[in-house]
Every structure is written in structure tokens, then in C-alpha cells.
Amino acid sequence: MRTSRLCLLVSASIIATFVARTAAAQEQSAADTAASDPNEIIVTAQKRAQSVQDVPIAITAVAGSSLGTLQMRSGTELARQTPNLSVSVLGNEDQPKFSVRGIAQSAFDLNASSPTGIFYDEVFVRASFLGGAQLFDMDRVEVLRGPQGTLFGKETVGGAVSYVTRAPQFDNSGFISGELGNYSYVGLQGAANTQLVEDRLALRVSFNTSDSDGFVKNLLPGGRDKSNFNKVAIRTALKYKDDAGFDATLRYSYTRSSPEAVGTNVTGYLPGNTNAFGFDPRRDPVTGKLLDAREGYYDRDGRIRVRGDGVSLTLNKDLGNVTLTSISSYLKGYFLNEVDGDGSAANLLALDFEARTKEYMQDLRLTTKFDGPFNVIAGLFYFRDTLDNLFHVSQFNGAFDGRQTYRQTRTSYAAYMDGTYDFSPSFSLYGGIRVTHDKATMRNFRSVVNIPGLGIPNTNVDYTETQPSGRLGLRYKPSSDFMAFAQYARGYRSGGFNGGALVFPGDLNTAKPEFLDAYEVGIKSRLLDRKVTLNLSAFHYQFKDQQFINSISVINQALVNAGRSRINGVEAEINASITPQFRLSAGMGYLDAKYTRLVLNGANLAGNRMIEAPKFSFSGAADYTVPLDGSTELTLHGDMVHKSSQFFTAYNADVFPFSLGRTPGFEEYNARIGLSLNEGKYELGLWGKNLSDNKTLVGVGIETNTNLRFGTVPYPRRYGVDFQAKF
After folding, report:
1. Distance of CA 186 to CAs 45, 178, 208, Å?
2. pLDDT of amino acid 493
3. DSSP β-ladder status, 322-340 and 349-368
4. Helix (H, G, I), strand (E, B) or coil at 199
5. Burial 462-472 (b: 16+ CB within 10 A, else e)
6. Cα→Cα distances 436→154, 463, 498, 573, Å
7. Of the candidates 711, 697, 687, 727, which has an alpha carbon nearest to the alpha carbon of residue 72?
8. Coil vs helix vs strand at 241
9. Which CATH architecture has domain 5-726?
10. Amino acid 227: pLDDT
11. pLDDT attached to residue 14
């Protein structure tokens, strides 16, 4: 068991702050203030603070106070509460792939961009390996479904995931919490908020650390069990405000994650389930016994190392009818993933994925709040990122050794405007447009093989493009308890380079942009004296030129554009306060997502289901509070999620071995019992996750060069206790 000295130091600093200052009642955030009434969660999905019920976007918002009850520790768990959201992981939960309404990413290459945008306090994060957020000291998480290109940018074809951390408050407060669980799990988090200058300057420091033993048994004598992890994250935020409408927030974040190949499951798919090396990795090589999904022989530790450092500065100036906002950020990150690529105790295939990235962002915008019928948000946006990639492959104990290297640089400039015109108090027209200019280069690309006739030695490629995105809609709101909307939105994801080119010069190609035309209608309503919230939406998508990895042969693949697709779907979310003590919530999603024009390797796949697009998704939760006396409560919580079967390859069941990319449907159940003392100042809890011990793979990859199927097994049944103390 490894304990972070850094987090222990931060813990001591937080406790010292509590001792040095007089504790005050903790000021609740906007999301938590509204959490007692789920109808009134405040979001910033349109870059303004609004009730989620007033925004003409399908949104699932999870308040920070609910994350502990739900035992959500990572962004990969958001699919438990969000209709038509799937999250896949292939060996590393720090690099999740989000699929919103069937809009998924087919490539795990480190240079690839996602069709779902990830944002931390309005800062866009492009590197895929920095997308697995540690959920601690959060104000809320917003999952926006549907294209968000106008205000959030080009890489939000499917939607956006927005993490909003707790901002400094002008008081002295904080908390510390901890967890203990099976597999030697230990978690500790806390925050200290202090007012440095009354009503002028405030500081908030928060931390999170978690450590667990592995749950995948390594049967190799002396080998370490797989899927253990050690995570550390620290955030600091300094806020200044004056009496003239100016405020500034400076944020710094540090994250480090050191897992080992989360739940990797390897299966051969040649006759007899053998792989290219002639054996079945799912059977014991001595006894021939079929191994459990959480067992294997691994000669490599399978280390994964993720680090991220980021700083951002948010400035706001209220000029009366106009507010000016500037967001500047810098982020650097490091990623290493060492893969045991053969699924055996022998050193037959070792793969190392390594990358370093730097990202710069500047968003400058103005927001109007005129008394008249028209208001607008308009801005300019700049983003630049560089990625230095090193892929290392070693076969047969080093008999073959190759490296793929390159530097990719992408730069984006955009101008955008989004406005609303109120024809009457109940009827509005809204819409916006964003024009983005992209330039990308890949320099000194070198493939793993460099011999005459093969290999890609020191090649340079580039592309430039300019594309629009936007939306146009009507909103009808006759009362504060009902809203209906209908809209059209267009999203796009910029073209990209094939980071998986390994051998043949022709593989280093550039894919065209992908485009989505989205039509949606929806209602948001409060019923029965606001005891029930019911939100419904229905949508039709036309998807063109989806970027796809096409495995051409056992040693080469291309990045292609996948013709056309069609998606129809519906969603429903309901929250009901049956009594003041008893609350129910549920979410349902249905997807009919199919390729209408797609040919890969000569196979016509039109009519096949799209990848990572389960037809049905359902989630439900129940919360019951039992008052014990004036300051003590017992809380009972249970939730579940169901996902129907899905495919991880476009071939579905048509072409072997890609037909092995199907996973069956599953259910997971979670529960927590909590005891709240002294009016919520202290809390104790008993929790359980994945109580049904679901083993359905949450990510699948087909490797044609080794005849292996890689999959990621979810965390097993877990249980433990937790505590929290507020100051």
C-alpha cells in the first residue's frame, strides 16, 4: 500500500487552517442550494447561470453533494445517471471514451480527438489521457447531449461534459472525508476555504488521494496483481473581487494517476481460441483450465502513469448591461501505458504508449443583459496543442524492436455569437454560429519499420480547413413550470491524422472532418405543485463522414471517413418527491443508430448498428430519509443502471474476428446507508458498488496483428465505510 506524502502534507495544512481560524457554517454552492429541489439545479450550459429547467438543451446535471451518496469517484461513472451516455475504457480509466447518443470515437490513438468535449471550469481539455476526472470538491457536473458547437466549439459533435469545481467563498469553512473498502481501498479527500481579506480575497485548497490493491489475479509466480491504483489530485483557487463589478479567479490543478492495466482481459480468436503465438491466453498453460475473466498470466507490470499540471485565470468585468469575460489557460501532461500484448507469461509482445502534451487556450467574450428583447453572447477563441508521441514495440524478447515517433501541433481560431430574441414573455427565437479555422501539422513522423519499401521515415503532413457550426431554435415557455423547444444544430469534428500508421507509407493519411445535422424537440416540466420534474426529448441525426479506424490487414490500418449514418432516439428523465422524506428518480434512453452507407475492406456494412450505441439504457435511484431527532437523520439510498448489448466494431456479427466486438447487456446495483449527525456536520456511511458483481466488458479492442481481443473488466463488487466532517 502506497501513501502519498504530498497529500498527507496537504491534509495537515488543511487541519492547521481549521485550528488557526474560527470555523463558520459552510456556504452552499448554487448547485447544492438547489439540490434539495432537483428542479432548481443551476447550470452554465449557455455560459449564463440558469436553472436547468430553463435551458433548451438536454442536460443531466449532478450536484456535488450527490456525488458522495452515489459513490461517484471518476468521470467514467457518469453513464450511471445519464440517458444515452456510454463510457468505454480499454485498460486505462484515465483515458475514457464518451459516446453520447451514439456519437462515438473509434480510435484510442493518443493523437485522436474526441467527438465529446471535456471541460474543467470552462477550460477545454483535448488530450484524451487527461479526460478521466477525479470527482472531488465539485460544485456540479453537467452532461450536455447534442451538438454544442456554437458556445463550446468544434469537438462537441455528440455533446460536452463540463466539470465545475467549487469556487472560493468569502468565509472560513471546509471538510475532510475518508473511505475504507475491500481490496485494501483507502480514500481521503478534503478542502479548506479561507477568507484572506474580508469580502475581497478568498482561497480554497482541496485534495484527493485514493489507493487500492488489484482485483485481476496474476497467476504468474511472483507477479503483481493487475488493476491496482494510486491517485493523487490537488486544486487551489484564489478569488478576488471588488465593489466595481470586477472579479478574478486564479486556479491551479495537479493530478497524478498510477494504475496498472485496469481489468485487462485477453482472448485469442484463431481456431481453438489461440492467438498468433499458438496458444489460448484464456486457459491455464499447465492445466488447460479456463481462467476467470479476472485471472491471467502477465509477465509485465503493465504500468500506467498519468500526470497533469494546469493553471487558468478567469476575469469578469460587469459594465452594467454588458459583462466581459476572459479565460486563459495552460496545461501540460504526460502519459505512459506499458502493455503486455501477448496475454502470456512469456515476453512475446510488449507495447509502450508514451506521450507529452502542452495545451494553451484563450476565450474572450461579452455577454449582454439588456432589458429589451434581444441579448447575445459573442466571443473570440484560440487554442493550440502539441503532442510528442513515442510508441515502442518489442517482440520475442527484443528480437524485433521498433519505435514510432512524431510531433503533432494543432491550432484553432474561432469567432462565435449566440443570441436570443423574445417575441413575447413566453415565445423566443434563439440561435448562433461559430466559424473555426484549423491548422494541423505532423512533423518527423517515423514508423516502427524503416527498411527499403516499407516504413515511413521522417515524413511531414499537414492540413488546413475552415468550417461553421451553429444552432437555430424556438422556445415556448408559457409558465415557470413548463417549457417546450425545437431546434436544429450542426456540429463538426475537424479532420485528423492516422496516428496508428505503423509500416506502410500509404497508412499515414488524413481524414476529412465529420459533420452532424441534429434535429431535436423537447419539453421540460414541473408537475403536481413542483413535486415532479419530467423532461422529455426526441431527436433525429444525420451523421456524415464519421472518422473511423479501418484495419486493412494484420500490420496496417487507415483512418477513413465512414460514409453516412442515421440516429433516432428518445430520452426521459423524471424526479419525484413522493413525500418530503422519499424521493425517486429515473432516466431512460432509446437509440436506433445505424450506418446507412459504409464499406470497410470490401464489406458492405450498411444497416449495421453503430459502435458504442446500446439500444436501451435505464437508470433509477431511490432516497429515503428517516429523521431520528432534531439534528440526526438516517438516509437510505439505492441506484441501478441497465445497458443493453452494444458493439465495439462496425462489423457487428458479419465479419470474423470483428464479430467478437459485441458485449451483452448488463445491470449494476449500488447502495449506501448514511447517518447524519449534528445537522449534517458529521456523517457516517456504509456503501456497496456493483453489488451484482457484473463482469461485462466496458471496452473491447480487436488486434489483427496478434489475433487477440483485449477487453476491460469492470471493477468487481466493492463495499466499505465512509465518513465526513464539515468545519
Report:
1. 34, 7, 11
2. 94
3. antiparallel
4. coil
5. ebeeebebbbe
6. 7, 14, 22, 34
7. 687
8. strand
9. Beta Barrel (2.40)
10. 87
11. 40
DSSP letters spanning 259-298: -B-TTEEEEE-BGGGB-TTSS-TTB-TTT-PBPPTTEE--
* Residue 298 pLDDT: 82
Residue 12's CB: how many other CB atoms inside 10 A? Answer: 10
The answer to whether the beta carbons of residues 109 and 408 sit under 8 Å apart is no
Cα–Cα distance list, 180 to 177, 211, 687 (Å) = 11, 10, 10
CA distance 585 to 37: 12
Provide long-range contacts, Cβ within 8 A and 24+ apart, for 2-5.
2/211, 2/230, 3/186, 3/209, 3/211, 4/209, 4/230, 4/232
In what helix (H) or strand (E) does residue 20 lie, and over which residues does it extend? helix 5-20
Question: Residues 6 or more apart from 63 whose CB is under 8 A from it?
Answer: 31, 32, 34, 35, 41, 139, 140
DSSP per-residue string spanning 621-675: EEEEEEE-SSS-EEEEEEEEEEE--EESSTTTTSSTTGGGGEE--EEEEEEEEEE
pLDDT for the residue numbered 141: 97
C-alpha Rg value of the chain to the nearest Å: 25
pTM: 0.92
**Which of 144, 36, 149 has the alpha carbon at shortest distance from 432?**
149
pLDDT average per 10 residues of sequence, the chain (727 residues): 42 40 37 48 93 96 93 92 93 86 88 94 94 92 97 95 97 97 97 97 98 90 86 98 98 92 62 66 79 83 89 98 98 92 77 95 98 97 97 82 91 98 98 98 86 72 95 97 98 91 78 96 96 98 90 70 94 97 97 94 90 96 94 97 93 67 93 96 98 91 71 92 96
Q: Report the C-alpha gap between 75 and 477 in whole angstroms.
A: 33
Q: How far apart are CA 498 and CA 217, in angstroms?
A: 35
**How does DSSP classify residue 166?**
P
CA distances, 71 to each of 68, 78, 526 (Å): 5, 11, 28
Pair 714, 690: CB distance under 8 Å: yes
The domain locations on the chain are 5-726
d(CA 207, CA 234): 4
Q: Which residue has the cell 456510454?
A: 86
DSSP 582: E
Dmax (CA) for the chain in angstroms is 81
Pairing of strands 295-296, 217-218: parallel
* Three-state secondary structure call for residue 19: helix
Place of cell 456524415: 544
Closest CA to 204 of 189, 193, 188: 193
Determine the Cα–Cα distance for residues 718 and 670; give it in Å rounded to an integer: 9
- Reference 145, options 482, 575, 500, 591; nearest CA is 591
Do residues 32 and 362 make contact, with C-beta atoms less than 8 angstroms apart? no
- The helix/strand/coil state of 605 is coil
Composition of the chain by helix, strand, coil, percent to 5: 10, 60, 35
